[in-house]
Amino acid sequence: MTIWRTDEELMLRYRDGDTAAFETLYRRYERPLFDFIYRLVPDSTDTESLFQETFFRVVRAKRKYRATALFKTWLFQIAVNLCRDRTRRMKHRSHLSLSSPLAARGESRAELQDFVPDPSPAVDKAAEAGELETAVRGAVAALPEDEHLVVVLREYQGMNYSEIAEITNRPIGTLKSINHRAHERLRSALAPYLGE
Predict the structure, then answer these.
(1) Would you say 105 and 80 are in contact if contact means Cβ atoms under 8 Å apart?
(2) 87, 111, 134, 166 — which has fewest CB within 10 A?
(3) Residues of the chain with CATH 1.10.1740.10
(4) The whole model's pTM is what?
(5) Which of left, alpha, beta for 103 (phi over 0: left; psi -120 to 50: alpha)?
(6) Is the torsion defined by CA of 93, 97, 103, 105 positive or negative?
(7) Is 73 within 8 Å of 166 (Cβ atoms)?
(8) How far apart are CA 21 and CA 12, in angstroms?
(9) CATH fold of 1-92, please?
């Protein structure tokens, strides 16, 4: 019979040498953490390495772990810091890949792959079906860094403001304002698709 433990209990057990506890945590957070990093980092080719580095940091910090905060917020805080570092480093590089944004910050962020024709016969139907999703993803990616982070944590990860405050070290009122500004920008950017 499996006894379900809290994340914090599992991390404490892992700290004390129970590797099965770590495997349980990894399985619990594998998908949500990967999805979070994928949505947060401008260059999606970095997603896998950032995901692995996040768990590597958890492994390295296991001896120092104290259950003073939720494991979930601690894990996501590690990921946020790694993503911010990677984004800052990438700003200093100049390279172009098929998933690189073509527009400057604050403008609509088309990608090179959006201009490469797809040779398949059902392109029109697939394009129509995915057009709104692509527009939403582009609009979210074009948000300023703080707004982008709050939207991804709140809308895609389903976190409440208390959890986001713990991850970002910002007051809840500030986060609500940031989220409101982000939604206003998104509403404006997506107006053509929403019939506004």
Answers:
(1) no
(2) 134
(3) 1-92
(4) 0.75
(5) beta
(6) negative
(7) yes
(8) 9
(9) Rna Polymerase Sigma Factor; Chain: A (1.10.1740)
